[in-house]
Amino acid sequence: MNAQPPAYFEHEADIGIIGRGTSVEAAFEAAAYAMFAIMTEPATIRANQSVHLDFEENDVELALVTWLNGLLAEARGQGLVFGRFRLRRDGACWHGEAWGEPWRTDLERGTEVKGATLTMLSVRERDGLWEARCVVDV
Q1: Per-residue DSSP letters for 12-35?
Q2: Are 82 and 100 in contact (CB under 8 A)?
Q3: Element containing residue 71 per DSSP (H, E)
Q4: What is the reported pTM?
Q5: Residues ≥6 apart with Cβ < 8 Å to 135
Q6: 88/99 Cα distance (integer angstroms)
Q7: pLDDT band with cut points at 50, 70 and 90 for residue 3
Q8: Is 128 exposed, middle or buried (0-12, 13-18, 19+ CB in 10 A)?
Q9: Which sign does the torsion angle of CA 103, 48, 66, 23 carry?
Q10: Can you tell me the distance from the alpha carbon of 68 to that of 85, in angstroms, rounded to the nearest whole number?
Q11: In a 10 Å sphere around its CB, with 0-12 CB exposed, 13-18 middle and 19+ buried, how is residue 25 labelled?
Q12: DSSP label at 45?
């Protein structure tokens, strides 16, 4: 479970998400948590199914968008919602895992996220803390 509450920033039409962590991977995990928290309350999601998501990307900012869109594709393709995430990086190779469950009728549905975009995309390290930002299309 993510220890930090999801973080967001203002955007006129869509929603800006922020993930922070002590590593770039932790920041990406927090960004994924923030994105799925738009769709439902993460604390109510049972982690009884998992998916693996591996991809290659040298550009760390594009890796954030690839990670988030890959998770959305897995969620849509399998009818799942995720609430826990783990990501590991080995150079340009990223290895992720997400846990969740099929949508239940008693899960409150929030706003559907259609995809992560390049809008206001930023991944930076400052004073030992990584911050990953992008706008998601809702």
Answers
A1: SSSEEEEEEESSHHHHHHHHHHHH
A2: yes
A3: helix 60-78
A4: 0.94
A5: 11, 14, 15, 16, 17, 116, 117, 119, 120, 121
A6: 15
A7: low
A8: exposed
A9: positive
A10: 11
A11: buried
A12: -
Q: Is the pLDDT of residue 85 over 90?
A: yes
Angstrom CA distances, 47 to 22, 39, 59, 112, 138, stand at: 24, 16, 30, 20, 24
Mean pLDDT score of the chain: 95
The pLDDT value given to residue 122: 97
E-strand ranges in the chain read: 7-9, 15-21, 49-56, 80-90, 93-102, 115-116, 122-126, 129-137
Instruction: Show the tokens assigned to 51.
Output: 């998916």
The tokens describing 90, both together, are 């080995």
Report the amino acid identity of residue 113.
Answer: V
**Model pLDDT for residues 86-115, shown as the tens digit of each residue:** 999 999 999 999 999 999 999 999 999 999
Instruction: Annotate 46-65 with b (16+ C-beta within 10 A) or e (fewer).
Output: eeeeebebeeebeebbebbb
| Residues 95, 119: Cα–Cα separation, whole Å | 24
